[in-house]
């Protein structure tokens, strides 16, 4: 089994897709006006409008109601990302901080309030753990 994507449901798909295009610097692939995907080498962030929920089960998902998940993106330089995104992001939770497990992390909120962590491994152990997945500077996360 492989995790292929994470899907967010939103009441404003244009706004949320635009936000993730700015953060990731990756253009979304729109399947319909109600569904888009931002695909990275490691996986896909799918974004669906509230109109797609009824296709599964009415009321099974609610937009802007996440209080448990954090979407994480591995980036070459989290401090550079912080400088780049300061004019784009309204909801920074913290400034870049080195975590006890060896990643330098920047936690922010997307327009729907979902938590997003941009991180760069900085200790030898963390660098080794992500060695085959770390994007190089100048490439998208």
Brief digest:
With 141 residues, the chain is of the alpha+beta class. It has four helices and nine strands.
Summarize the topology:
Blueprint: E1 5-10, H1 13-24, E2 29-32, E3 35-39, E4 44-49, H2 53-56, E5 70-74, H3 78-85, E6 91-92, E7 97-98, E8 103-109, E9 115-121, H4 124-129
Defining traits:
four-stranded mixed β-sheet; Signal recognition particle alu RNA binding heterodimer, srp9/1; five-stranded mixed β-sheet; 2 domains; 2,3-Dihydroxybiphenyl 1,2-Dioxygenase, domain 1; single chain
Can you offer a commentary on this structure?
With 141 residues, the chain is α+β, with helices and mostly antiparallel strands. It folds into 2 domains: 1-54, Signal recognition particle alu RNA binding heterodimer, srp9/1; 68-135, 2,3-Dihydroxybiphenyl 1,2-Dioxygenase, domain 1 (Roll). It is built from 4 helices and 9 strands, in the order βαβββαβαββββα. It has helices at residues 13-24, 53-56, 78-85, 124-129; strands at residues 5-10, 29-32, 35-39, 44-49, 70-74, 91-92, 97-98, 103-109, 115-121. Strands 5, 6, 7, 8 and 9 form a 5-stranded mixed beta sheet that branches. Strand 8 and strand 9 (115-121) form a beta hairpin. It starts with a strand and ends in a 12-residue tail after the last helix. The model has no long low-confidence stretch (mean pLDDT 94).
